[in-house]
Every structure is written in C-alpha cells, then in structure tokens.
Give the backbone structure.
Amino acid sequence: MSSTNEQHEVARRFLAIRIEHKLSQQAFADALGISLRSEQNYERGARKIPSDVLFTASKVFNIDLIWILEGSGEKPRRILKPGELDQQHLTRAYKVVRAAVDESGQQVSAEQFVNMLSTLYKFYCENASGIGAEVFIEAMMSNTK
C-alpha cells in the first residue's frame, strides 16, 4: 500500500472516531489539543497525522492505536479497561448462544450456557468480525450433548 493510501486510510479511521463520539470537528480538535484547521486537514487526509496526535486520540477516546494505524472495519475498536465488559459483544454473544440452544432443542444447564456465552464473548472480543462463529458455536453445542 502506498504511503498516500495509508494516510487516507488512517484519516478515514480518524474521522470514524469523531463520528463514533458524535463530536463536531471543533470539539474533537479541542479534545485532542489541536487546531480546527489541523483537524480538518487530518480528517481529509490532506496532511499526515502526527504520531502524538494519534496517540492522544487513542488515549482520550480509549481506542486501540493499532486499529487507528492499520485496523479493519468501519467502527473504532475500543480498548477495554481491566474488568470492563464490551456490552455490544456480550449482547451479540448472548443472542447467538440463545438462538443455538433454542434451535438445537437441547437442555443445557445454566453453567453450560454461561460457559458458552463467555467463550463466544471472548471470541468476539478477539475477532470482532465474527467470522468463524458458526463453527465455534457448533463445536460448543456438540460438547453439551
């Protein structure tokens, strides 16, 4: 990937952080300690975003710096604090496990359900795309028989 393409991809993810937090360009610039003009130039990809600004964005908005630099997906990947749960991943995992259990017609204990839920939750935290979840849940369901 060329340097210009990389710059535009980083700019796209930089913009995604602002949109995710529903901030104006001015409020985003203020939060990062930069000028509005700089923020606008970074967001458009007209100027390369300095590493200190990217680092500040990562810390202020609790976003994975690796995602900002080379991540995939449109939605910023948050950094979870110790003991913090990602509500979106937890809800997604619950829905998938609940549907799999209901569809199978199997009786599972509360402990089995929680084990499947926590395993799938961890899977989603490490693999936000969810690719492979079907195989993963099938394997877990076969272990409950």
